[in-house]
Amino acid sequence: MMSTIDYGERIPNNVDLGSDRRLQRALESWQPKFLDWWRELGPVGFQDREVYLRTAVSVSADGWANFDYVKMPEYRWGIFLIPPDADKTIGFGDHLGQPVWTEVPGEHRADLRRLVVVQGDTEPASVEQQRHLARTAPSLIDMRNLFQVNVEEGRHLWAMVYLLHAYFGRDGREEAEALLTRNSGDADRPRILGAFNEETPNWLAFFMFTYFTDRDGKYQLHSLAQSGFDPLARTCQFMLMEEAHHMSVGTSGIGRVVNRTIELMKEHDTDDIRPFGGIDLATLQRYVNFHYTVSLDLFGSERSTNAANYFSSGLKGRYQEDQRDDDHRLVNGVRAVPVVEGDRVVDVEVPLLSAVNHVLQSDYVEDCQRGIDRWNKALAAVGAELRLPHVGFHRAVGSFAGHHVSPDGRVLSAPEWESHRDEWLPSDDDRAFVDSLMVQITEPGRMAGWIAPPTTGINRQPVDYEYVRLS
Ligand code: BYC
Q: Is the CB of 111 under 6 A from ligand 1?
């Protein structure tokens, strides 16, 4: 197994693709379809511009990436897995301690294919959702970050398509085709998971998406990185190295909006900064409420037999499974999960194994809170704060689906909840206002008025570097 990446190949890879002609040919016939999809549903405009992008050149933790100008359609999308470890054993479930699988076990084939397809489906979906954003990029560095995220989501699609082609035979190849024919928001052929059919209409939504929804990606990838099916684990481990940047785009993006909001509040001594071209805190809070809750839905039901089966079969573990101090089988434990009883939210105890989605979701909630805490440190200067709403608020999947819970956790009647909708979630007016602020800024180093500059540039370049060459 090679661990360096061969760029002489049509498809860069570190899996010795050249030694398996059948597989290589299958992937080479998928490649033009991917490129057609990229041209048709990838970023609108700028495809012939040189963008300062990161490309994976090795899988070693230090220095795995190279930065240079590339035109997006010429990006070297490839297949990169962390090298195998011959002594590796399965870390959880019924097969605990047995050697990891290098092929798909027949009895787990359908479940594994489903996990790979669901994961793969989100990657091109996010590119589709974000395709119009360059037109209103608030700065050149933001435009570059958008494109970086987009090409890497494209690479994550490659990662899943490789697994489908290499390990799932003919139905895998069919699933790989279908990943390009389902489209975000399409009435007949939508993407699989709810949040990936929502629009990402403006940059505030983009930063919220990269903070909240990409963070679901982090937790799901971590769980799959534990998988007993080793090729899946190894590919997810590498994807996580790329994913970190996507979340940092969200963290720093929201942080910069918050900083600009504080600046305007101080300058004009008012909360009502809309007349001065800033995003007021009430609007920011509504965007947090929306993106956080649609992302909570991505964890599936708090109680899930699917998730229990994935865990006991060794297909999908928990976040940092290897660092958890328990039996890694979860056959005896119990866990309190929230449910709605009458007009109250109460905890009920359920078998731990059935609650692994809830375990993952809770780790995610804690992680989301860390960003909120950081922004609140800055917001203390104006005596304000942002909050994560109650986990039951605005939910379409799991215990709270069909219930009407307020952001502070009260169970309401449908009409009462509806009467507050515009206080709690972005309203048409909010969206129109945020959209009205969106202007494209292309002069290096300059920022749109609603967002502060980032503190650092990319790859130690200055903030005013020409991250996208427009001429
Ligand atoms: N929307 O037992 P349940 C990322 C369905 S993001 C629509 O509750 P389970 C990224 C479910 O399919 C990470 N349907 O859930 C981020 C099932 O249907 P069937 C993506 C949903 O199976 C940003 C039924 O409801 N990766 O990488 O335990 C940019 C009952 O299911 C939803 C993964 O998700 C929903 N939200 O868990 C780019 C990892 N939720 O079987 C990329 C792989 C549930 O009754 N996926 N349903 O027809 C999984 O592990 C699981 O499929 C889920 C669901 C966690 C998503």
A: no
